Amino acid sequence: MTTRSIPFFPYSQLFTARESDLMEVMRDVCRRGAYILQKDCKEFEATLAAFMGVKHAFGVANGTDAIIIGLKAVGIGPGDEVILPSHTYIATAAAVHMVGATPVLAEPGPDHMLDAADVERRITPKTRAIMPVQLNGRTCDMDALGAVAARHKLVIVEDAAQGLGSKFKGRSAGTIGRFGTISFYPAKLLGCFGDGGAVVTNDDAVAERISLLKDHGRNADGRVVAWGYNSRLDNLQAAILNYKMKTFPADIEHRRRVAALYQAGLGDLEELTLPPGPEADPRHFDVYQNYELEADRRDDLRAHLESRGIRTIIQWAGTPVHQFRELGFAVSLPRTDAFFKRCFMLPMNVALSDDDVAYIVAAIRSFYGK
Ligand SMILES: Cc1ncc(COP(=O)(O)O)c(C=O)c1O
């Protein structure tokens, strides 16, 4: 077998694959001198809202600011607890901390997503919100979480940084809770060439507060009427996102095809636990931001793949949030701990060819002697 070189994520290819088009997009913005809050940003917000089926979408500086601004807009702050999964990026918990509230960490269910039953056990009189993370391009079981929220009169707010395009029962990730947030970090489903994010909501009053919070508290007339941040999506990034949005549905189909090929090639290996396949559950439309699986002898398998030129990673560099002891977490989450001894991620991106996937599948099968 000839050895290939398959990066985990081909950052430079995002640009080189469409270099002349992208140079034209950037030249156009710069020649217009249109850097901050210009028409490209407005256009992108409208396109994003239409794509997600939501009333309001606001570009902001990054996906972390998006959560902070959303939480502030719904009035979550000191004295409040927000329940979220430990299997998430530190940003989800940090945003809760930064608004003065307390992040309470919970366990995943078998599909890696926030487990509604575990959430319910962690509710206290201080709990104000549940924040599902729409991880790996999959939307949580929002019926189960919604039932818990309704029973305890809690608000649901969604960290959909990894979920753009994913759906639960036909509704887009990020549009089901009071607000939802997206990240346009370069390796995200829809990535820009730097930092970028969005907050979306169907609630007019929340939308009004988000629009003030993200731009120095300035209203449509430019008058300051509240305290706010400087957290705006760069117009240059918005123009790049407008361009990339045109192929986004095809990009999603590409990812779903790669997932189907992994499922077909690896589904019979009992040493592995794969994520749900694209057709596994009609309630879910998964877009595979990541292909995260569990494996027996995970570290040896990763070394075997590395020796064949296949780069893999463990999400969050292998550390779920509750294991950051310096941040003061003292909670024991045995299911999350067990998951992090077995999980890792295979390459999943639009540059992967069918041959690349066949090569990765063959390498994994050879490791297990199949
Ligand atoms: C689940 C999750 N939440 C929040 C974020 C934060 O987004 P950003 O890096 O754009 O601030 C990320 C991505 O990095 C993420 O994966």
Would you mind describing this structure in some detail?
The chain is an alpha/beta fold and 370 residues long. The protein folds into two domains: 14-245, 3-Layer(aba) Sandwich (Aspartate Aminotransferase, domain 2); 247-367, Alpha-Beta Complex (Aspartate Aminotransferase, domain 1), CATH 3.90.1150.10. The chain has 13 helices and 14 strands. The chain has helices at 13-16, 19-32, 39-52, 63-73, 90-98, 116-121, 142-152, 204-213, 235-245, 248-266, 298-307, 334-342, 354-367; strands at 56-60, 81-85, 102-106, 127-130, 155-156, 158-159, 167-168, 171-172, 180-183, 197-201, 272-273, 284-285, 291-295, 343-346. A four-stranded mixed beta sheet has the order 1-10-9-6, with helices on both faces. A hairpin with a 2-residue loop joins strand 7 and strand 8 (171-172). It starts with 12 loop residues before the first helix and ends with a helix. The model has no long low-confidence stretch (mean pLDDT 97). Bound molecules: pyridoxal-5'-phosphate (PLP). Pyridoxal-5'-phosphate is lined by residues 62-64, 88-89, 91-92, 133, 159, 161-162, 183, 185, 195, 197.
